[in-house]
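Example 5.3 — Fungal-specific transcription factor domain-containing protein
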Amino acid sequence: MERDQAPNGPFPGESRKYRSRKQKPCDLCRKRRICCIREAGSDRCALCKARGNTCTYLAPPPVRRRLPQESTRRRLSQSQNVISRVDQSFHHTLQYLGLSGDQDPYLLQHLSQHKLENAGHVVWACKKVNDNPEMPAQFTIFPDKHLDARPIYYPQNDIEEAAQLHKEKLINAYFETVHVSFPIVSRSEFDPQAASTLRLASMYALSHVFCPEAKSLDPWVFLNFLGRAIPLEARNASLDNIEAALLYSQRHTYVFRAPTMPGMMAEVGNLVGMAHDVGLNVDPTHWKISEAEKKRRKRLWWGIYMEDKWSALTLGRPSYLQDDQHNVPMLTTADFDDPRAADSTSPKENISETMFIAMADLSIILSDILSGFYTLRAVQMLKNMPSDEKDTCIFSFTNRLDQWDGTYSSLFHRNEDLFPDPTGTLQLSYYTLEIVLCRAVLRDKYDHPIRKRGEKMVLLVIELLRTLQISRLRAFWWAVSKVNFSIVGAFMFSMLVTSIEDWEIDSWMSRITTYLKLLKEHSINFDTTKLACIRLELLSKVDQLMEDGRSHRTDESNGGVPAPLESIGNASTENREQAQLGDGNVIYSVDDPFEFISLDPFGDSENLDWDALMGFL
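Solution (predicted C-alpha cells):
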C-alpha cells in the first residue's frame, strides 16, 4: 500500500489536521487518487517524500461550488435586463409585417385592439401606416429587451471617449468628403447629440482618413466596435442601425491581400435582412409617416440596392435582392436635403445627388445583366438560344447603356472647379458595366462585333487612370472601385488570350503593361488601385495565360515554342510607346516596362496539399 511506503511507517491519524479542503492535490497524488497530505512548512507531500520526487502541481481539477441564492438571482437579472452600453433612443422596435408571415396583415387590419399591455408596459402592438386594404402596410412593435440585441457580451462602448477631442472635425470631414460621394445622411437633419453611437462610429470610420486633426486616432477603435456591434444590432433593426451598417460596408481597406475583404458577402446579406425587417423594400409614398422619413427610407433602400448588386458582381456571388420583391420608386433630387437648406444649392450638393441617382439607375441595368448573363440558369439558356435572339438581347442592353451615357456622361466633364469631385466612382462603374456585358458575350464568340466596344472601354479606363486628378482622389473611395479596376485588368488578359493576329497580341500586351504601371504608380498614394495591382500581378504570373494568348504565334528563333509570360513587359517598342482610340488621339505613352510589386499575396502555399483540402471540403 502507498501509505505503508511513507518514511515513518503508516501515516498517523493525527496528520489529517494538516489537510485542508482548500488544498489541491499534487499531480502524483491526484493520478493515484489518494489523499495529498502535506505537513505544515513542508514543500513536499508525504508520498513525494517517500518516492523522492519533486512535488508538482500543474493542472488541478475545477472546484465546483454552488452559487449562493442571492448571487444566482443577481446573475439572472443581469442577463435578462442587461443595461445597454450604447445610447438608447427607443425602448421599442418596429418590425414590418410581411404578407406571408404568421401574423397575417390582412387579418390584423380587422382587429379593433392593436395593443397588448402587461403591468402598464406595452409587450406587443400593431401600427397601421396605410389604409389600402389590398396592400396593407403594418408594423408590429416589441420591447427592445425581447429582441436580445444588447446582451451582456455587447462590446464596450469607448467610441465617444476616443473621438471626444476630434468629434466636430470628424463630422465636418464626413460631410465635406464622404457625403458628397455617398449622400445617405441628411445634412440638414443630422444632430450629433441625438445620433446613436453606432451611427457616429460608422461616420468616424469613414471620415478618419480625411481628417488630419484626427490622425493620431487608431481607426480600429471604430472598426472593431462596429464589427462586433452590428451583428448584434441586426436583431434590433432600425433606420439608424441600417444606416450605420451601410456606411460600414463602404469602410476603407487597411490590409491589402489577394483575397477579397473576408466575410463581405455575409455582411451584405445581414444588411439586406435588416432592410427587410423594417420594410425598406416597400414604397412608403402613401404611408402615414413624416416626409423626412419617407425620403430617408428611399435613400437607404437604393443605397442597399447598389451595395447588393455591385457586391454580387465584384465578388461573383448571387444577388440577395429579387426584383419582384420591391417597389420603391427611383430617387429624385427632392429625396435628398430640403431645398431650403443653406448648402443644398451648392454645385457640390447638386452633382452629388445627381451622381447618386445615376448610380442607382446604372445598378438596375447591372441587375438585369447579372440575371440575363451571369446566373447558372442564364449560362445554360444562352447556349441554346438562337443567334438572332441572342443578338437582339445584346442590342437591348447596349442601347440602354448608350441611353444612360447620353443622360449622365456630362457629369464627368464639368467638374474642373469642384473639389472634391465625387464622379470618379460613377465613371469607372459605367466603364466596368460595359466591360461586364462584353465579357459575357465574348465567352462563347470571340469575334463578336461587341469586341470593339470592349476595347474602347478599356482605353477609356486607361485614360481615366492616366489623367486622374487630385480633386478626384479624396471622393474616389467607394469599395466597389477597388474591384472594378481589377475587373478591367482581368478583361484585358481575356482579350489577350483570345487574340489571333500578331498586331493584336502586341497591342494587348502593351495595354496591359501600361495599365499595370499606372496602377502601381497610383498605389503609392491612392489605396483604391492597390487591390487591382495585387490581383493583376497574380494573373501575370500564370504562365498558361500567356501560352494561350500566343498559341497562334510561335517564336521561330525558339524552335516554335510560345514565348514565356515574362515577355509581357517586352512588347515591341513601337506598340509600347502609344495606343490610340478610334479617333486617333494618343491617350498614353510609356517608355519603360512595368515592374511588378515584390510581394507574395499567396503566402506560404507552395507545398499546399490540394487533394487533402478538397477532400476536407
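Remark. Residues 1-22, 72-90, 339-344, 552-607 have pLDDT under 50 and may be disordered.
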